[in-house]
Amino acid sequence: MRNKAAGHVQAKKWRVSLRRGHHEPLIGHATHEQILRNLKEGARPIARADFFPDFPLCGHVHCGACGNAMTGAWSKGKYKHYAYYRCETLGCSQKSKSIPQARLEGGFEDVLKSLQSTTLGRSGNRYIQRRLERIFGASNSGARRMGAAIESC
């Protein structure tokens, strides 16, 4: 059976032609047809523009004042660029207050190191390392640093 989500049923195997079902559709028929066209043409969603591998904790670290996800960005100094995490939520008391990347990610590494082998055991450390690699990507430098922090436990 196909097209159940759009409120229609069809079962060629039993010679049931496409017809309106008795159930309430989850999506419209036009939306369903557009999805089928996209799948047939091999259309893929565009890559997220807000993912930047230089900031592995972006989206996973939340502002202490408003609770929304913090963003990572580069700021230009007089002689070089500096990496920061900051909250960009309108109305937040900490909006645009920058936290240096090294300080925030270093604090995260300290938390990981505090989960020493006595707390989680060797298998727990390997589990966390695999999860970090899966979330942030094994090729990401921040993920490698954090993975190394776990291995040292």
Overview of this protein structure:
- The protein is of the alpha+beta class.
- The protein has helices at residues 29-41, 101-114, 117-136, 141-151, and strands at residues 8-11, 16-20, 71-76, 81-86, 98-100.
- The strands form two sheets. Strands 3-4-5 form a three-stranded antiparallel β-sheet. It has a two-stranded antiparallel sheet with strand order 1-2.
- The relative contact order is 0.10.
- The mean pLDDT is 76.
What is the count of β-strands? 5
Task: Identify the overall geometry.
Answer: elongated
How many helices? The count is 4
Mean pLDDT figure: 76
Radius of gyration from CA coordinates? 24 Å
In short:
The chain is of the alpha+beta class and 153 residues long. Helices cover 38% and strands 16% of the residues. It folds into two domains: 8-41, no CATH class; 71-151, no CATH class.
